[in-house]
Amino acid sequence: MTGQQRSLNGVRPLVGIVCCNEQAGRPVQAVASRFVAPLTALADASVILIPAIPEAVDLPRLAAMLDGLLLTGARSHVAPERYGGAALPDGQTIDRDRDTVALGLAGRMIDAGKPIFGICRGLQEINVLFGGSLGPVTSHHPGAWDGDYDALFAHAHDVELPASGRLATATGARRLRVNSVHHQGIDRLGAGLSVEATGADDGLIEAISACPCGAGVLAVQWHPEWDVATSPASRAFFTLLGAGVRASFPTGRLPMKTRFLLPFAVATTLGLAACGSNGAANNAAAAGETLTLNEEGGAGNDAIVTDGGNLDAPADNQALPADVPGNAAATNAL
């Protein structure tokens, strides 16, 4: 991380991660450590874990406190009733409480003009939040969650990046080799979202972005946290995350001489100025249009209203130590 991206005046932005509901002989809240480490090492952020227990969280207060939100991968899927989908096949699990917390908090962050980022399930949550739908994919998940994670995440394919996208700008690449570990994918693209990557072999939407209410949104279907130590493209995702949260960092916490210079300078360098130049990425807010986020879900998502936007565009890591009290369920949490 460059000097401009390091924390200023000893204060780091605060990024929230929504937990998953898992079982380890009893209900536990779980987040795999691999999602947390790059936020500190590459985005230079402090991290707070948010329980996926709706009655335990004050969403408006959290949205006011956080500088950014990362919605991570998970073994569970978004409940089909959130987007009017068919029941999932036997053996695939849902986590309705995570849906409630993640979608509710993400919507409030966007309303507050604060950035959200997504990985795997997180991309799917963001698409549903914007009124999109999900569908099954049959060739993107090579095995069971209880198998060899190294072998699981060795499954990979190529994605293609549009030249004007944020990922292409940040990586300097038009084609990436990425891991592929998911049963679900984007079917109908949410209103106001732009496509950042598509599968080279099947055209599946693999990354999305937007800029509603001035809030940067970026999400990928693959797992950049898995190979962040060896992949420049994966590191670029977390560098973009760091720049995004700094662009919304409360000015009262920054030294006066950097309050007005840092967000623009960092964002411009990484292709984030004005939320990028990727067509509909400036979407409804720039045109004075109305965009209602789908925090509650429902068949068809008719609550989404937009007069523009790009609508025609074409899990997980190493285990947390099982011998750490309370961490047993996190060994398989994506």
Question: In a nutshell, what does this entry contain?
Answer:
By secondary structure, the protein is an alpha/beta fold. The chain is 25% helix and 17% strand.
Can you tell me the CATH class?
Alpha Beta
- The CATH topology: Rossmann fold
Mean pLDDT: 77
Strand content: 15-25%
Number of domains: 1
The main pleated sheet reads as: 9 strands, mixed
Report the uncertain regions.
1-5, 254-274, 276-289, 299-333
Oligomeric state, counting identical vs distinct chains: single chain
CATH superfamily: Class I glutamine amidotransferase (GATase) domain
The number of E-state strands comes to: 13
- The assigned CATH architecture is 3-Layer(aba) Sandwich
Radius of gyration: 18 Å
Could you estimate the helical fraction of the residues in percent?
25-40%
Q: Give the SSE string.
A: EEEHEHEHEHEHEHEEEEEHHHH
Broad shape: globular
Question: Can you list the strand order of the major beta sheet?
Answer: 4-1-5-6-13-12-11-8-9
Query: Counting H and I runs of at least 4 residues, what is the number of helices?
Result: 10
End-to-end C-alpha gap: 25 Å
SS-based structural class? alpha/beta
